[in-house]
């Protein structure tokens, strides 16, 4: 099925560990982004990419790293996990074109707990 | 920077009644998109309705409609004939027309439907 695939769905990390959240889309969308969702704060942008090889910081980039080597994949790396990074993470891709307006497709989310 | 504010952390409504969720935003742009997303317990982000700022007509999607007041920077969502399946978190979001396709989200409103 076409869409955005995020893995894993759940993860528990120890403080100081590193990991990569995977995100892949098969819709040939140029724009991809990572958000974190915390209670009472909505979704906040971590990093985004407007195409392969191009990334930029969002609102809350500290402690996270991204790369975009292909159009399809946009992994999010936690360099040294901290309890403050306990959150639900969403990957999204979007297309904006004539006659289509703007359409965002979200992954199913990753619940990350850092202990 | 653009900001989106949802001042109602929680709302409840009787089944079959009508409920309105509030959203205000701050921007210096004249053209932009506004969205309402629904997030049920499954965590999936589901687009409810989208409004283009240059369109004066309020968007509608079946039982969902918006009251878009551009001068007041207000974008409320009305749900008519509320159903149990409408229970969810609802997020208001903003995106500029030009430039990076970054979504800015409000804090969310948790909607409960009472049978």
Layout of helices and strands, plus pairs?
The complex is a heterodimer of chains A (115) and B (115).
Chain A: E1 4-7, E2 10-13, E3 19-25, E4 31-38, E5 42-51, E6 54-57, E7 64-66, E8 76-78, E9 87-97, E10 101-106, E11 110-114
Parallel strand pairs in A: 2-11
Antiparallel strand pairs in A: 1-3, 3-8, 4-5, 4-9, 5-6, 7-8, 9-10, 9-11
Chain B: E1 3-5, E2 10-14, E3 19-21, E4 24-26, E5 32-39, E6 46-52, E7 60-61, E8 64-69, E9 74-79, E10 88-96, E11 104-105, E12 109-114
Overview of this structure, please?
The complex is a heterodimer of chains A (115) and B (115). With 115 residues, chain A is an all-beta fold. In chain A, 0% of the residues lie in helices and 57% in strands. Chain A has no helices and eleven strands. Chain A has strands spanning 4-7, 10-13, 19-25, 31-38, 42-51, 54-57, 64-66, 76-78, 87-97, 101-106, 110-114. In chain A, the strands form two sheets. In chain A, strands 2, 4, 5, 6, 9, 10 and 11 form a seven-stranded mixed β-sheet that branches. In chain A, strand 4 (31-38) and strand 5 form a beta hairpin. Chain A starts with a strand and ends with a strand. The model of chain A has no long low-confidence stretch (mean pLDDT 93). In chain B, strands 2, 5, 6, 10, 11 and 12 form a six-stranded mixed β-sheet that branches. In chain B, strands 3-9-8-7 form a four-stranded antiparallel β-sheet, with no helix packed on it. Chain B has a two-stranded antiparallel ribbon with strand order 1-4. Chain B is mainly beta. Chain B is globular, with a radius of gyration of 14 Å. Chain B contains no helices and twelve strands. The termini of chain B are far apart. Classes of the chains: A mainly beta (115), B mainly beta (115).
């Amino acid at each position: 099925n076409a869409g955005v695939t995020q893995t894993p769905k759940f993860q528990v990390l120890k403080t100081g560990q590193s990991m990569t959240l995977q995100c892949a889309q098969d819709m040939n969308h140029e724009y991809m982004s990572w958000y974190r969702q915390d209670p009472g704060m909505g979704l906040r942008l971590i990093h985004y990419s407007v195409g392969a090889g191009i990334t930029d910081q969002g609102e809350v980039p500290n402690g996270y790293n991204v790369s975009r080597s292909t159009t399809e994949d946009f992994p999010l790396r936690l360099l040294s996990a901290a309890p403050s990074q306990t959150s639900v993470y969403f990957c999204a891709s979007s297309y904006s074109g004539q006659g289509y307006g703007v359409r965002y497709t979200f992954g199913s989310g990753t619940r990350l707990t850092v202990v | 920077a653009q900001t989106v504010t949802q001042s109602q952390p929680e709302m409840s409504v009787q089944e079959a009644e009508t409920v309105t969720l509030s959203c205000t935003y701050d921007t210096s742009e004249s053209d932009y998109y506004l969205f309402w997303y629904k997030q049920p317990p499954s965590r999936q982000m589901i687009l409810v309705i989208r409004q283009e700022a240059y369109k004066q007509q309020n968007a509608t999607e079946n039982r969902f409609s918006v009251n878009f007041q551009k001068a007041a920077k207000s974008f409320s969502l009305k749900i008519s004939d509320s159903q149990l399946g409408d229970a969810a978190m609802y997020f208001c979001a903003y995106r500029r027309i030009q430039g990076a396709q970054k979504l800015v989200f409000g804090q969310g409103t948790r909607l409960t439907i009472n049978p």
